[in-house]
Amino acid sequence: MTSPDGELLGAHVSTAGGVGNAPSRGDEIGATAIQIFTKTPNQWREPRLASEEIERFKLARRRSGVPAVVTHDSYLTNLASPDDKLRAKSVASFKAELHRCRSLGVEFVVTHPGNHMGDRDTGLERNAAAYVECLEAEEGPMVLLETTAGTGTALGSTFEELAEMRQLIPHSLRERVGFCADTCHLYSAGYDLVNNWDGVWQEWDDELGLSNLHCLHLNDSMYPFDSRRDRHELIGEGTLGPEPFEKVRQDDRFRDIIKVIETPKGDDPVATDRRMLGRLRGYK
To answer: What is the residue-level pLDDT of the chain in tens, covering all 284 positions?
Structure first.
């Protein structure tokens, strides 16, 4: 089941009480796509999903109006870390995420490239090598490298870095690696979606290929262009304003791509998400 226009549009939703609750929460906000955490994102503890919970999720998904599901990996993982212990913990965590997604039948895992903590080139190599190790260990979902805002030593704030990281992954595994673009992160990293919409996406196509873009995070930004800061704002109420979000809804290149908001929830998450999705659907 999809929306009347076939678009896959939704929000990051809570899995409180179990992942099996997520699809109905998507229905509650009128979503046709959801993003979830399969574990607490700021803890190292790796839960093993019971078979009953896996089946509950799959049944709820079939019964819902939410055909598209993506997960987001832990905030703690740093696959580019020069610290051997942290990198090993991060690899184990990411393998566990891939395993949970395969068990749930989720097709995509969104991940932030790591922080190199010193040397960019060796950080890129460590990051790519870790993805290779994890992909070889776990079959199933596609890994989507998310654009970052360029804060500190975070990798992935330029199209060139993302392309280089994917290129370091062998051909046999590269088809399982794509991209997720976050509008807030792009704008904060210096890609001007307000004044150079077509130019940014032409550069993306030249460097990364639009065919490798599988998810869009639609978030406004609290901070100005090229700020290198990552703080999301409600759609149309930040420094991007409504125009880029109008364009993404009107641009046929993005029609079939999963679109998810990660905007502030406020005191009433359901009402706020419904309002933001309604606002987006009004941009025609």
So the answer is: 344 457 999 999 999 999 999 999 999 999 999 999 999 999 999 988 999 999 999 999 999 999 999 999 999 999 999 999 999 999 999 999 999 999 999 999 999 999 999 999 999 999 999 999 999 999 999 999 999 999 999 999 999 999 999 999 999 999 999 999 999 999 999 999 999 999 999 999 999 999 999 999 999 999 999 999 999 999 999 999 999 999 999 999 999 999 999 999 999 999 999 999 999 999 97
Give the span between the Cα atoms of 2 and 123, in whole angstroms.
40
Tokens of 142: 């596609």
Distances (CA, A) of 68 to 18, 26, 140, 147, 274: 18, 10, 15, 20, 17
Architecture of domain 9-282: Alpha-Beta Barrel (3.20)
Question: Residue 79 in 3-state DSSP?
Answer: coil
pTM of the prediction?
0.96
Written as six digits, the tokens of 208 are 């990364």
Of 127, 145, 126, 11, whose CA–CA distance to 68 is shortest?
11
